[in-house]
Amino acid sequence: MGSKAELTALPEGKLLINTINAHSYNTARKDELFAEALTNGDVLIPDGVSIVKACRWIKAKSLPKERIAGWDLFEFEMNKLEECGMKNVECGVNGEECGMNNFSLDNSQSASADHSCSGKRLYEPSAKLKIQNSCSGKRLYEPSAKFRERPLTVMFMGSSQKVLDLIVKRAAEVYPHLKIVTYSPPYKPEFSEEDNKAIVEAINAADPDLLWIGMTAPKQEKWTYSHWNELNIHCHVGTIGAVFDFFAGTVERAPMWWQRHGLEWLYRLLKEPKRMWRRYIIGNTLFLWNMLKEKV
């Protein structure tokens, strides 16, 4: 994926979306399963200015135009689903006045809505349903034409229960039309077979419309890839570990100036030198060396 604008072109349905930066590139060179997970996922997002510049320098097959942070993916997907949920509520409250005549289905499909004030889901966001904003005439999203009766659900799998509780609290304020489900896995280097089974069962039971996996790289990518066929879901899945903390407010993201100038890594290094020095000082140097070898 080359630009933020291309996020709107992501197909609906079950889709594995990973991110890559200098650190994950270095790690993937030494971790075969991690490299396989990144290579075989459905979408790989350049979450680092270093990746964008390196692709241009070595004339890679993929030439991204800009950095797409995990946070950018998170905001795009959450805002899109929130607007879906908002539309559900409007239709449930106002009946035909909500603008059901603004729904146009591909392949001449027909749609019917439950106009009772129950807050139930009117559709499942995964097929090509275009909804026009009656005020602006702009297309807000392309959810599904498949109807079912339950609220739009976002699941956060990973991190500590403390962070997840903060996510639930903030989501209630920022995304009030979405149901938030969380699961905090055991804190250990590797999960047991029983742990993996419990996680898969929790995800399948939630049957989310959007799933976020946050266990830091490379664990989150490797786990999701390894259990992909066991996940009986039909939604976008993003591996965005650090975003859990950003959204919860437990870690401060760099101010916009630092982001715009590609210096978010430096801000994190200055804020947490003891934790980040190896990743950014040694890691960035190693990345440059690896790119030099690719160039040669």
Structural class by SSE content: alpha/beta
> Which residue ranges are poorly predicted, with pLDDT under 50 across at least 5 consecutive positions?
94-148
* Gap between N and C termini: 25 Å
Query: Could you state the order of secondary-structure elements as H and E?
Result: EHHEHHEEEEHEHEHEHHHH
Characterise this structure.
By secondary structure, the chain is of the alpha/beta class. It is 45% helix and 14% strand. It is built from 11 helices and 9 strands. The strands form 2 sheets. It has a 6-stranded parallel β-sheet, with helices on both faces. The chain has a 3-stranded antiparallel β-sheet with strand order 3-4-5, covered by helices on one side. Helix 1 packs across helix 11 and helix 2 crosses helix 7. It starts with 14 loop residues before the first strand and ends with a helix.
How would you summarize the topology of this molecule?
Blueprint: E1 15-20, H1 22-30, H2 32-40, E2 43-46, H3 49-57, H4 70-94, E3 103-105, E4 129-132, E5 139-141, E6 153-158, H5 161-174, E7 179-183, H6 193-206, E8 210-214, H7 219-226, E9 236-239, H8 241-248, H9 256-260, H10 264-271, H11 273-295
Parallel strand pairs: 1-2, 1-9, 6-7, 6-8, 8-9
Antiparallel strand pairs: 3-4, 4-5
Helix pairs in contact: 1-2, 1-11, 2-7, 5-8, 10-11
